[in-house]
Amino acid sequence: MNKGVVIFAHNNRTLDYGRMAILSGILAKKNLDVPVSLITDPFTVDWMKEDGIFEDASKIFDKIIISVQPDTKNIRKIHDGASGDGAHCQFLNSNRSNVWDLTPYERTLLIDSDYFILSDNLNNYWNVDCDLMISKKYNDIIGEERTGYLDKRISDTGIEMLWATTVMFTKNEYTQTFFNLVDHIRENYERYGDIYRYDYRVYRNDIAFSIANHIMNGFQESDDYSLPPVLSTIDKDMLHDYDKNKLTFLITDLKNNYAAATIQNKDVHVMNKLSIVRNYKKILKMEAQ
Amino acid sequence: MSFGYLIVVSDKDDTNYARLAYALALSIKNTQKEGFDKVALVIDDPERIKQYTSTWVFDEIITWDKEKHWDGRSWMDVLTPWDYTVCLDADMLFLRDYSHWVQYFIDNCELYIANKSFTYRDEVVTDYTYRKTFVENELPNLYSFYTFFVKDSLLAKEFFNLNRKIVKNPIEFSNNFLQNYKPKVVGTDESFALSAKILDVTDEIAYPLEFPKVVHMKGMIQNWPYPADKVSDHVGFYFSTKGELKIGNYQQNNIVHYVEKDLITLETINILEEIAWKKNV
Description:
The complex is a heterodimer. By secondary structure, chain A is an alpha/beta fold. In chain A, about 30% of the residues lie in helices and about 25% in strands.
């Protein structure tokens, strides 16, 4: 069974997902030693070419798969640190369920472009006898105090939140049904919002994946295998520096105070996307050495 | 050897416990396999169940009016017609076959009392809002809603004899044993827990098991981020024509102790009756 990592990248006017995907791809390839493919769209590819990074992408990615840029009404505030800086931007995330059709691999690890793999931990999951595994838990980098109820459940009375930041699946009939169901939930997101009582104004893959998993499991929590918890920073933290497999962040206490924290040899979700892009050249240079 | 469930009801003016017992008996007949589906009803006024069309779901109807409300349950060992009994609260529903639980108890126990409960999302209840008496007085966390016992067991006899003394003398026992937090009423859960503690038999009658699994639908223990009086104010109860129950977004497979008595409507009864009739054609 061939296996590999897949990353989606669809640029908007503010965020360069192409650059994020390149960094995420480099680290995944280095630490997992498996091929990595990119799913993107013509506009993002054009920009990558114009920006001079398409060559980097071609070297890193096993395959660059050109798909359609998803249509979206999703507008979200992207923070850049705790000061209130940031931007409102389109969130082009609604085609994640297409991964089943687009992946070139029989066993796929789907990761967000802002997920940095700094260990080989996820290699332990390729051979697990489970067709679909998703992270069930979000671990904030500084602990529970910044974790809210809605990081654990999709609503006050609702089902547990799964984190679609990392998803591993085998291409078969079961997972095809799962991804079709995710797509159906996305198309009827408002209606499912009534049934599952979540805030449907902004589409979230995490919620659609959670509901699909809940339905596929007979409307109950699943005690099947899952991927490890997603260790995460928030977008009010800032990625400050990178050394080989070591990230340094400025971590906020949400009161405009920062403390430095280092993550080494651990996979981490870097929510401050603008700070990833700022560190693009530094990380690329370091990894080229 | 006979096994059966026992339901003891004594109607309060504001609650039709006979209807709840009837719904529970129907759900037992609909879901349990033969040999594990017998039901005995102990009732103070049998006239209250005559209106129902399928009273055959009660294999035994015992008229008994010596105690009122829940105090009658302290006589379960005397009242039961079965050699092996599981005594249940009336406001419960069975949703699948649990006879393998019963078989374990028959093979291994003289007396076993449920010692945990679950939310509708299948989490173990850890909130002690309703259990201050237990925490403050270091009582074992027992739930009388599912009690297995063997009729001729000495352990069970000793336990229920003491339990009856507590129920009859709640003030004396509260003053002596529940000084850290006195409950307004010494209910069956409290008296069971106190009996177990005084006799020092908790490890024998309430050791950790994965079952029985009973979903307890009191509002404050559902692990919600806000206080809730009634569960039905926040999530829906959806009872299908197949007799399946969903609470909120969750399919229920374990015994549901629904607490809110008005959830058992005539429509619910009709659904359960129809399933029972079809099963027995």
